[in-house]
From TrEMBL:
Its EC number is 4.1.1.49. It is found in: Cytoplasm. CDD domains: PEPCK_ATP. One of its GO terms (biological process) is gluconeogenesis. Keywords: ATP-binding, Cytoplasm, Decarboxylase, Gluconeogenesis, Kinase, Lyase, Nucleotide-binding, Pyruvate, Transferase. It comes from Apostasia shenzhenica. Belongs to the phosphoenolpyruvate carboxykinase (ATP) family. InterPro entries: PEP_carboxykinase_ATP, PEP_carboxykinase_C, PEP_carboxykinase_N, PEPCK_ATP_CS. This is phosphoenolpyruvate carboxykinase (ATP). The lineage of its organism: Eukaryota, Viridiplantae, Streptophyta, Embryophyta, Tracheophyta. One of its GO terms (molecular function) is phosphoenolpyruvate carboxykinase (ATP) activity.
């Protein structure tokens, strides 16, 4: 507290001169003399307003345009250009919200320009055509907070300043409701059929769902528009527009996509891809192909995605990731479901792994620069993050174990599905009452050592993370290139509860490229690109088990995060590369004899199991699952290189 002559100082000054006695302290008024022993509330000049309304109007300073304009604008041609620009932008937004099948649709009104209605209402053929929808375009986090708290029942501000909210009935993605339009081009290019995540849908059905979503959005008083970017590689940046009904969704995407500067927003133009998120509204179950009230529909030709029947925000993030998994490989760029960080000396590591295996946790590392936690591109120029934010699991989050993530949960962060104290608004991260899959979404700059812009040179280490519920994979093994490909294509883990709707318990899963739910092309396409890049740039592959140790799930326990961190430190430092190794039976994995800071007895899983026979049985069981899973890939060639293909086939588990 600052002591000055005007304030009432009840506890003495903070300048060390306060008298010892508290009674005399009450009478101390600092340096200036005070004439009375009471404080008057008219000691400051009065406000420059005659009425309360006038007073309120003083509170908000006009902030748009908020930054210096382009050179042309500064030269005086600004006013016309600015008007035209606003008009074009509104036309583009209005076109986004236009019905495709009717002559007229609802009118779109920009909230910042109350007079400017763009859609000419020539034929008012229905009540909906008379309706105005306010467009809230690229609102700031503070504005979105206010909307959320005011209009969304489940939104609250937590004690650390985050916006806590509920995603509704769905607290994870719905992969069985993810559809892709199979037109002639997509039929030839994409991966379809058994094992593919792309459930086919026809153009007409897509349009039915699109119309439903657009009509729903237009029936609302407000819709949120986010115009943002994907990919920090300036040559391969994609413009995306997200049209949504909830402030929560708008803030989530504000955090997750790359945020344009005011100048970039000014010249944004039309988006390359648009999401219509009408998540509160179901699809019509009588519509052809619909198997539930949820549908997430991607149309590559129209560059559009429609979301009906799920409010889980991860659908938007991962839907756009799917789009990148299509667009980038076409340009010779590999898209990756991986985390990525960089050491002080510029050594880059990629962290692959399915949901819950540790990409976010392990790429967020005090000693290194964070490039990104979940989605990257690897081009001839190096690596780049696709996103502008992180999406961390929060179950059991603690400041001791994950301090940077814990501290990132503050004003601006969206906290999904967490439980908090009604009064103190203190979050209880251990509480799984809503879901196990509680999440925090924050801009990447909330991590103190984020590398911005989020790109880096070619990776030196490629770390494959598996959360092995069987407890038989070693905590760390060094992989040959063929083994790296084998495990990349296999994409093994034991799914941790909750991220995919319907899965409640850990269970062994194989997901090609550590992200089969998001890939668009056949897995061997991505694998071939990874092999080529790893060879070309000399990266080393590693398999790290962040799962069980000393017995399977239920018997053993999860490997301590502190140990996994030591292992990762050893990989980054380079010391592990040339350590002393031995080969395990069955999987033929090379395991080091020692890792600094990790008990030697856990490095070879057989030592950690009390029941050696149970260990061997479990090992063979898992090896069998690997073999069975890989059988479907055995007939595909990787890179047209039959030698590598044979080596990959031989790099899997060997047993009778
Ligand atoms: N040994 C370990 N290594 C890594 N993570 C661990 C370990 N033990 C426990 N965990 C916990 O496992 C979870 C890993 O989740 P994380 O958010 O890193 O997953 P992810 O790979 O980023 O998944 P997603 O793609 O769904 O975001 C965290 O909650 C972390 O605290
Ligand atoms: O998309 C989500 O729901 C969370 C995530 O990162 C993943 O599952 O890989
Ligand atoms: Ca993550
Ligand atoms: Mn992910």
């Amino acid at each position: 507290m600052e002591a000055n002559g005007e304030a009432c100082v009840l506890n003495g000054g903070s300048n060390g001169t306060a008298p010892k006695s508290s009674l005399s302290a009450i009478k101390t008024y600092g340096k200036k003399k005070m004439t009375a022993e009471v404080c008057h509330d008219d000691s400051a000049p009065s406000v420059k307003a005659q009425t309360i309304d006038e007073l309120h109007s003083l509170q908000k300073k006009k902030s748009r345009p908020s930054t210096p304009k382009s050179a042309a604008a500064a030269a005086g041609v600004f006013s016309v250009t600015e008007e035209n620009r606003q008009k074009l932008q509104l036309q583009s937004i209005s076109a986004s919200l236009a019905s495709l099948t009717r002559e007229t649709g609802p009118k779109v009104k920009a909230v910042k320009q109350q007079q400017d209605y763009l859609t000419p209402a020539t034929l008012n053929t229905s009540d909906s055509a008379l309706k105005f929808t306010h467009v809230l375009h690229n609102l700031s986090p503070a504005e979105l907070y206010e909307h959320a708290v005011k209009y969304e029942k489940s939104s609250f501000i937590t004690s650390s300043g985050a916006l806590a909210t509920l995603s509704g009935a769905k607290t994870g993605r719905s992969p069985r409701d993810r559809r892709v339009v199979k037109d002639a081009a997509a039929a030839g290019e994409l991966w379809w059929g058994k094992g593919s995540p792309n459930i086919e849908m026809d153009e007409h059905t897509f349009l039915v769902n699109r119309e439903r979503a657009v009509d729903y959005l237009n029936s609302l008083d407000n819709v949120f528009i986010n115009d943002q970017f994907l990919n920090w590689d300036p040559n391969n940046r994609i413009k995306v527009r997200i049209v949504s009904a909830r402030a929560y969704h708008s803030l989530f995407m504000h955090n997750m996509c790359i945020r344009p500067s005011p100048e970039e927003l000014e010249s944004f133009g039309s988006p390359d891809f648009t999401i219509y998120n009408a998540g509160q509204f179901p699809c019509n179950r009588y519509t052809h192909h619909m198997t539930s009230s949820t549908s997430i529909d991607i149309n590559l030709a129209r560059r559009e995605m429609v979301i009906l029947g799920t409010q889980y925000a991860g659908e938007m993030k991962k839907g756009l990731f799917s789009v990148m998994h299509y667009l980038m490989p076409k340009r010779g760029i590999l898209s990756l479901h991986s985390g990525c960080n960089m050491g002080k000396s510029g050594d880059v590591a990629l962290f692959f792994g399915l949901s819950g295996t540790g990409k976010t946790t392990l790429s967020t590392d005090r000693k290194r620069y964070l490039i990104g936690d979940d989605e990257h591109c690897w081009s001839d120029a190096g690596v780049s993050n696709i996103e502008g934010g992180c999406y961390a699991k929060c179950v059991d989050l603690s400041t001791e174990k994950e301090p940077d993530i814990f501290n990132a949960i503050r004003f601006g962060t969206v906290l999904e599905n967490v439980v908090f104290d009604e009064h103190s608004r203190e979050v209880d991260y251990g509480d799984r009452s809503v879901t196990e899959n509680t999440r925090a979404s924050y801009p990447i700059e909330f991590i103190p050592n984020a590398k911005i812009p989020c790109n880096g040179p070619h990776p030196r280490n490629v770390i494959l993370l598996a959360c092995d519920a069987f407890g038989v994979l070693p905590p760390v093994s060094r992989l040959s290139l063929a083994q790296t490909m084998y495990h990349f294509i296999s994409g093994y883990t034991a799914l941790v509860a909750g991220t995919e709707d319907g899965i409640k318990e850990p269970q062994a899963t194989f997901s090609a490229c550590f992200g089969a739910a998001f890939i668009m092309l056949h897995p061997t396409k991505y694998a071939a690109m990874l092999a080529e890049k790893m060879m070309k740039f000399g990266a080393t592959g590693w398999l790290v088990n962040t799962g069980w140790c000393g017995g399977r799930y239920g018997v053993g326990s999860r490997i301590k995060l502190a140990y996994t961190r030591k292992i990762i430190d050893g990989i980054h430092a380079g010391g592990l590369l040339n350590a002393e190794y031995k080969k395990t039976e069955v999987f033929g994995l090379e395991i080091p004899a020692a890792v600094e800071g990790v008990p030697a007895e856990i490095l070879d899983p057989v030592n950690a199991w009390a029941d050696k026979e149970a260990y061997r049985q479990t090992l063979l069981k898992l090896a069998g699952l690997f073999k069975k899973n890989f059988a479907v890939f055995a007939s595909y060639s990787i890179n047209g290189d039959t030698k590598l293909t044979e080596e990959i086939l031989a790099a899997g588990p060997l047993f009778d």
